[in-house]
User: What shape does this take?
Amino acid sequence: MTGEPQPPHPTSVAVWGAPSPVAAASRFTATVGVKCAAGCPLAGHPVAIRDETGRELGRGTLGAAPAAGTRALYAAAVALTAPREPGVHVWTAAFPGGAAEPPAAGATAQPEPEPDTATALRPEPPATPQPEPAAAPRRETSAAPEHEPPAAPRHEAAACTFSFRIVEPPGHAATVTVTVVDGQTESPLANADVHLGFYRASTDAEGNARIEAPAGDYELYVRRPGYAPHTDPVTVTGDAAMRVAAVRVTDADLDDDQVWM
Assistant: This one.
């Protein structure tokens, strides 16, 4: 006997790491995160990014473990190609929902081991007749009720939009490399948002964000959940590298801070 079917768990979707502006027709990557309201594991589920017309532009698979610094936020990096038309574009990241644990792909049955040839061809000795054992007294038993295992929880589909600007490839752009580290431990900080005016990028695993921008005066803005925002005036005259020591203020999770849109 099974109970009443349970309603699907609510989910939420976020996007981060997409640079803006993006040079027309260039390749870039955005990270899509999905979280179940009940904290269910979502590893292996697909996510997709679509343009304003609903056309799918890229697809990814949620990772095997929650994103670093989070409790139940599963993420996937999605490779994308920027449109050729300059201007602001609004795309959608979508999670289709489904069961908590999708079936493993590519699972195949294991072949039976082949018998040893010598053993297989060896004749069996004739069986010696054995006396039949006395029949045991019959006991009346009642069949135990069978219980089906509970079905895996299902999840609602969810989506969110994100926007970015497309610009013509700059003719004489400088590359500004911003390295963000923890102010106490000096360890690099990944997934920090780095803005240079309206140009922006996210730091990689080594704490580096690279932004291409024309020469000029900008405000550098660095933000990462759990750290105080950092601002500095910056003048770009050519390729440059700078370092930001972020000051920790809380132990906020990535999925509890400003990543959610």
